[in-house]
Structure formats: C-alpha cells, structure tokens
Amino acid sequence: MIGRIAGRIEYKATDHVLIDVRGIGYVVYCTDRVLASLPGVGEAAALYTDLLVREDLLQLFGFPTLVEKEWHRLLMSVQGVGAKASLAILGALGADGVSRAIALGDWNAIKVARGIGPKTAQRVVIELKDKAPAVMAMGAAAPTDTDGDVIEDIVETPKKPAPKRKAPRANATAQPDALSALGNLGYAPGEAAAAVAQAAADAPEADTPMLIRAALKLLAPAN
According to the UniProt record, where is the region Domain III (predicted)? Predict the structure, then answer.
C-alpha cells in the first residue's frame, strides 16, 4: 500500500498531478480544491494517498491531510459512492465541510457536489453520522504540513539542518479539542460533534474555549 507521496511536481493536469520521487513518476488524482492548493511545477509537494486496486486498474488518490484521506475511505464505503463521487464531495466541501455536514445531518450540503443526488446524499449522512466524531477528532494529531522540508532527503544536495516546524495556527485543532472536552463532560459523541460543527460554522475563526462555550450553549436544554 502506498500511503504517502513526497517529491517534486512534474506537471499538473485538470484532475491529477505527476510527482517525481527519485526518478519515478507517480500519477496522483486529486480534487480541484487540492490541485489549486499545490505549488507549481518543479516545486516540492507531499500528499497522503489511497490506492484503488481493481483487476484492470491501479489509481492513486491524493489528500493534503490524513483527515481528508479518512473521509475519502469512509465515503467510498457508502453504497453508490465510488472514487469519483467521493472526490466530488470532498472537492465541493473540503474535509471540514464534510465533517460539518455529516455531523449536522445536512444532506443538502452533500447534494451540492457534482453528480450526487438526494438519495445518495441522504445515504451518506445516515451511514456515516456515527463515524463523524472519530474523524473530527483525528484533526488534533494529524500533521498537515506539506512544504519542501518533507522531501529534504529526496533531493540529492548537501544536507542542511532541518528547518524548524511551523507552529500550527491557534485554531488548527480547535474542533477536535472542543470535541474531546465535550466528551470528557459526558456528552455523547454524536451530539457533541453536531454542536461543535454548528459552533464552528457560526464562528470559523473561533479558538477552542470559544467553541466549547458556543457548543455548550447549543447543547443546553431550552428553558
């Protein structure tokens, strides 16, 4: 299984990118969103990958984070959702958007993706809603950095001291941290995930304490 590709971009097409790793070129299929986020030709790039194996086909699909890769695998487990449909959903919403839509049961958001009808969108939400909290929680530990230092040992140049890792943004782990906090307070994973997802949608730049407070207000019983 090829789980990660790190190398230099040889070319970018409309639905895939060719990454050269020590002289071997890997064709990696990506969403429009991911392709737009990748650097230009000749620059360093790294993607987490999922390998699709069929009798007459081997295809690599690339994702910037482990969370997005996990959503791809889960989306493909839903009846009627193949690799193309999964990429369409992730391309339309991104990993955070998929997490939020499924946690909130918002199948209309899933339906926005190209080629996804109402029945398929509803099936995605129903089958994956219980799995949303676990995937959202992955964000706390999953690395997201894919700049040049990840392939420093691939390029045949004198080794330099590894650059310091950039500190994650203050809100990079806000949702999984808030989800964990609500779990510690005794809330069920499903209701905690829905509250955190709604709070994050209302205030995308909120940090962990703000998300916890907002989620607790949403979870509080109406007077």
Answer: 170-223
